[in-house]
Write a structure and sequence with these properties.
It is a single chain. The protein is of the alpha+beta class. It folds into five domains: 80 residues, Alpha-Beta Plaits; 141 residues, Four Helix Bundle (Hemerythrin (Met), subunit A) (Up-down Bundle), CATH 1.20.120; 99 residues, Calcium-transporting ATPase, cytoplasmic transduction domain A; 155 residues, HAD superfamily/HAD-like (Rossmann fold, 3-Layer(aba) Sandwich); 108 residues, Calcium-transporting ATPase, cytoplasmic domain N (3-Layer(aba) Sandwich). It has 26 helices and 27 strands. The strands form five sheets. The protein has a seven-stranded mixed beta sheet, with helices on both faces. Strands 16, 17, 18, 19, 20, 21 and 27 form a seven-stranded antiparallel beta sheet that branches. Strands 6-5-7-13-8-11 form a six-stranded antiparallel beta sheet, with no helix packed on it. A hairpin with a 4-residue loop joins strand 2 and strand 3. It is a multi-pass membrane protein. This is Copper/silver-translocating P-type ATPase,heavy metal-translocating P-type ATPase, Cd/Co/Hg/Pb/Zn-transporting. Its main location: membrane. InterPro entries: ATPase_P-typ_cyto_dom_N (IPR023299), ATPase_P-typ_P_site (IPR018303), ATPase_P-typ_TM_dom_sf (IPR023298), ATPase_P-typ_transduc_dom_A_sf (IPR008250), ATPase_P-type_domA (IPR059000), HAD-like_sf (IPR036412), HAD_sf (IPR023214), HMA_dom (IPR006121). Keywords: ATP-binding, Cell membrane, Ion transport, Magnesium, Membrane, Metal-binding, Nucleotide-binding, Phosphoprotein, Translocase, Transmembrane, Transmembrane helix, Transport.
Length: 745
């Protein structure tokens, strides 16, 4: 009876007619494996996309729902020589830790053997120019063979297993020529020992293995370190929550069992597991992941709280707005995964080179051997030269040149609160010369607040904020955030374009325009104290009040825009808001070129005009009504929030209330782009110099191993410069002026 592998529980369906499965793939050792897996799977009928993340060996597969069973993906990977199982970060990390220990043991064996064989080799080298006897030299050679053969058999397993797996499945990878080189050099050395020759190459073989293992161990260590940046998010997840049942009973449940609308209790010292609105209680929470601020934020009724925040001082009751897959924390992880899995133009170039590597290098080695034999060299010398060519042409430096920069730079962006959506965003961001900002929610903070609450009688403010709970107007939303009592009044009626009204304790109360509330004089008096604020009036019987609502620029907006303009960027504003509301913003930021009253089509036409001038435009917008403009720009960046994160179509998104990430994104992208080109140049120069030298016989197998490992180490160390230093945060004194709230874009 045949067995069927059922993976349906791990399949997700986004709702667009496709199905998605994440698998952990074992046996990946080089860049050529990526092309084998992605290319092999994409040939299956029904597959839409297959992307392998080399950093964590996570394979994301998408196919047309119903086209075939997901078990076929695992079967195809098995046919290609790879084992796969559903991706679970903890299990993958445990497997990687075991593999790291295995590589370290192999490295220790190779290092110990190479030191002892080198001592024997030095004795033979010095003896050959003095008075060593043939019998003593043969003894040293046999002793070296007795050390080298078991050492290579043990320490070479990572390469032997990889090469054999590839050959069994009728393909090649980067380990095949390495293994051929090792076995040829070992065979020549054994033959030379049996023939009592003067020279053997056991020292070169074991040293080669030692340096190869050093490179492989360091590569894995680098990947584990970069994975740790994103894995830190796992520590922010709370596995259980205390749900409050309808009868008041508190039940401890797994986070996965919580649904939107549930009430949960969060005690002091607990990690918040869901996104939610505070129903009751007050506390200080650490939400540095969300805001980028290390200072704790005071929260109370109606405050928004995100999963991953730490509750410190008080007990909170939350109404769940998102749990599990819908939380901000989950979306941040998704963006990090997209950034790591996406491929830039440079990565695609390196993949193409790696794909043709094996046939080219085998051909080069064969041509080298035949050429040397044709010119009268011995088979011995021809084989040694061919071995050197096999080793020195390993494109490890090229394979690492771009991906390691991309991973390190993505980590730097993560620390700056920025997450990429597009693999080629680094290249496009590095070429930006013009920055176009939206106004509301981009240059200004997305939320608005009441500024004269202290001047309003507390009873009137409490009643107005409670009545505001029933209004959909953005000004009323600012008032509603101040409500301590979160229960809306009964029988509230809303007058379109006017406001809301209700009868409470036998008296009518109204909230809305000054005329609707009969509070023209009160509103006019309040507005005279702050001409830039918007006014929302309130009446209750004979009582009247006017609430001033306004929205501020992001705290560092003026300083950041001034810095960007000073560095030569052409900064502009395209806003859907009325021109008289955009003018003070532009003046506060020192932006001379701006337009108000822009419809989405107007913004697109403006961006197209800039592109026709040869400009590389970065559009910074809120990702909702600016989605067409974000798509039309050369590259785009959007502020992020739990509500609109999944709707953001920008190439990158940033967290927090500051504009600093915009400057950091450009700086990190330019640095990464420069390092990518440098690494590709290093890999190219290495091959242009090393391959001819090896072909001409000036490079021994040992020197080839040193050169190959050295080039890989060089590009890795150079890539670490992509971490750099983020721009210094702008001082609080640079905060910009308060500007009026509007409903535009």
């Amino acid at each position: 009876m045949s067995e069927t592998l059922d993976l349906s529980i791990y399949v997700t369906r986004p709702g667009d007619g496709t199905a998605h499965l994440d698998l952990a793939v074992e046996g990946i050792d080089c860049a050529a494996c990526i092309e084998d897996i992605e290319g092999g799977l994409c040939r299956l009928p029904g597959i839409v996309d297959a992307r392998l993340n080399y950093t964590n060996h996570r394979l994301a597969v998408e196919w047309r729902d119903g086209a075939f069973s997901p078990s076929q993906v695992v079967e195809e990977l098995g046919r290609l020589g790879y084992r796969a199982h559903p991706f679970r970060a903890r299990l993958v990390e445990e497997e990687e830790a075991r593999r790291a220990q295995w590589l370290l043991r192999c490295l220790a064996v190779a290092g110990f053997a190479s030191m002892n064989i080198m001592l024997l080799a030095v004795s033979v080298w010095s003896g050959n120019v003095t008075d060593i006897t043939p019998e003593t030299r043969d003894f040293f050679h046999w002793l070296a063979a007795l050390i080298a053969l078991p050492a290579v058999a043990y320490a070479g397993r990572p390469f032997f297993q990889s090469a054999m797996s590839a050959l069994r499945n009728r393909r090649t990878n980067m380990d095949v020529p390495i293994v051929i080189g090792i076995l040829l050099a070992l065979s020549v050395s054994v033959f030379e020992t049996i023939s009592s020759a003067e020279h053997t190459y056991f020292d070169s073989v074991v040293m080669l293995l030692f340096f190869l293992l050093c490179g492989r161990y360091l590569d894995q260590a680098m990947r584990r370190k970069t994975r740790a940046v994103a894995s830190n998010l796992a520590s922010l997840r709370a596995e259980v929550v205390h749900r409050i049942e309808d009868n008041g009973e508190i039940v401890l449940l797994p986070t996965a069992a919580v649904k939107t609308g549930d009430r949960v209790l969060v005690r002091p010292g607990e990690r918040i597991a869901v996104d939610g609105i505070v129903l009751s209680g007050s506390s200080d929470v650490d939400e540095s992941l969300v805001t980028g601020e290390t200072a704790h934020r005071s929260v109370s009724a109606n405050s928004q709280i995100y999963a991953g925040s730490m509750n410190h001082s008080g007990t909170l009751t939350l109404r769940v707005t998102a749990a599990g897959k819908g939380t901000l924390l989950d979306e941040v992880e998704r963006l990090l995964e997209n950034a790591a899995a996406a491929k830039s133009r440079y990565v695609q170039l390196a993949d193409r080179v790696a794909r043709i590597y094996a046939p080219v290098v085998h051909t080069a080695a064969a041509v080298t051997a035949l050429t040397w034999i044709a010119t009268g060299a011995s088979v011995h010398d021809a084989l040694l030269t061919a071995i050197a060519v096999l080793i020195i042409t390993c494109p490890c430096a090229l394979a690492l040149a771009v991906p390691v920069v991309q991973v390190v730079a993505s980590g730097a962006l993560f620390r700056a609160g920025v997450f990429l959506n597009a693999g080629d965003a680094f290249e496009r961001l590095a070429k930006v010369d013009t920055i176009v900002f939206d106004k509301t929610g981009t240059l200004t903070l997305p939320t608005m607040s009441v500024t004269n609450a202290g001047d309003v009688e507390p009873a009137l403010l409490a009643a107005a904020s409670r009545l505001a709970l029933s209004s959909h107007h953005p000004l009323a939303a600012a008032v509603a955030r101040m409500a301590q009592d979160r229960r809306p009044y009964h029988d509230v009626a809303e007058e379109p374009g006017q406001g809301v009204r209700a009868v409470v304790n036998g008296m009518e109360m109204r909230l809305g325009s000054a005329a609707f509330c009969g509070a023209e004089d009160t509103a006019e008096k309040a507005a005279s104290t702050d001409p830039n604020a918007s006014v929302i009036a309130f009446s209750w019987g004979e009582e009247r009040a006017a609430l001033l609502v306004r929205q501020a620029l992001r705290p560092d907006a003026a300083a950041i825009v001034r810095n960007l303009r000073g560095r030569g960027f052409d900064c502009r504003i395209l806003s859907g808001d009325r021109p008289e509301a955009v003018a003070p913003i532009a003046a506060a930021l020192g932006i001379a070129t701006w337009r108000g009253g822009c419809k989405p089509t107007d913004k697109i036409r403006a961006l197209d005009a800039l592109k026709s001038e040869g400009r590389k435009v970065l559009m910074v917008g809120d990702g909702l009504n600016d989605a067409p403009a974000l798509a039309a720009a050369h590259v785009s960046l959007s502020p992020i929030s739990a509500a609109d994160l999944t709707q953001a179509h920008a190439d990158a998104v940033f967290l927090g209330d500051r504009l600093q990430p915009v400057q950091d994104t450009i700086d990190i992208a330019r640095r990464a782009h420069r390092l990518m080109r440098q690494n590709l140049g290093i890999a190219l120069v290495y091959n242009l110099i090393a391959v001819p030298l090896a072909f001409l016989g000036f490079v021994t197998p040992l020197v080839a191993a040193l050169a190959m490992s050295g080039s890989s180490t060089l590009v890795t160390l150079n890539a670490l410069r992509a971490r750099g230093r983020a721009s210094e945060p702008q001082p609080e004194a640079a905060q910009s002026a308060i500007v009026p709230v509007t409903q535009g874009a």
